[in-house]
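Re: the 319-residue chain
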Amino acid sequence: MKHVPFEDKDTYIVEADGKKFQSKTNKITAHFIQNRYVVLRDFIPKEIVTFALDSWKVIEHNKQAFDVFFRHEHEITWNSPKSSLNKSHGESGSPMGIALNRYLKDKLKNVLDLNLGETYAYCRKYERGAYLKSHRDRPSCEISITTCLDYQTDDKKPWKIWLDNSQNWVDNDEPEKAFQQTQGISNRKRESVCVELEVGDVLLYQGPNVMHWRDFLVGEYSYHVFAHFYNREGYMRNIPSSTWSGMDTEVNPQTFIAPMVLEFDGRVSRYHSQHTPKPRELQERYQEFHEDYESRKFGNRSEFCNNYGGMETMEKKKK
């Protein structure tokens, strides 16, 4: 890896999935690989937060604009408690979400020693009684950020997010059993990681590999942005359906590297919505990739998503 300044790097012995390997990287990246998450405090300047939140509230106060960029959500995650239904609005493709996604990717260049590609951003406002059931994410969320822009809670503290990194959950296909092993455990008995994010803090985590959740929101509201990325130099490229031959607006054709369908989450560019017509080849390959990934046609998902076990080998090949 060679994406953060050389002077910030050191040699770390990193352990992931029971394997130890040596990597020349920085402390934040080593922590992210080994623990599957890292918290970056005061990462987003106050003026950027204010800019994004003001843009959001303009849309909220204009029904026509709201209907374009947001939708009222009935159920956020599958089989959520009935009392938590219809307690949020959200959507991908909003101007502030797209802008923050690009901003965060650019700012991470000197922080996270990985070559990130943008997939998508999602903005969601949770209201009193909202609930996020424990789950793992799809491959477009391989490397994810969650951040809070504003909140009003009864205890005046940020709404906690929980992470379970006790195992690599990406190969788990039993969501209810995973729930019982994570969020289904009472707070006092949980051994999972609890994180409080003040406005401007970000949680960087491996979305498909850690179970994550939020218990009931005791407060009026909480505004959140989720920025999602994938590792351009990761193993998901080894799934044959992961690339397509068409031109991508953000890929330099001189590199002779076929663009991945995960780039912009199967959209032509960061500015296009999921509803915008796209090349047939891209649409078909995007669907085929997700089917191959979920069905494990070419191997377990853990072999491709956030697999850093071959990092040392890749370093030697580059040299």
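The two ends are 11 Å apart (CA to CA).
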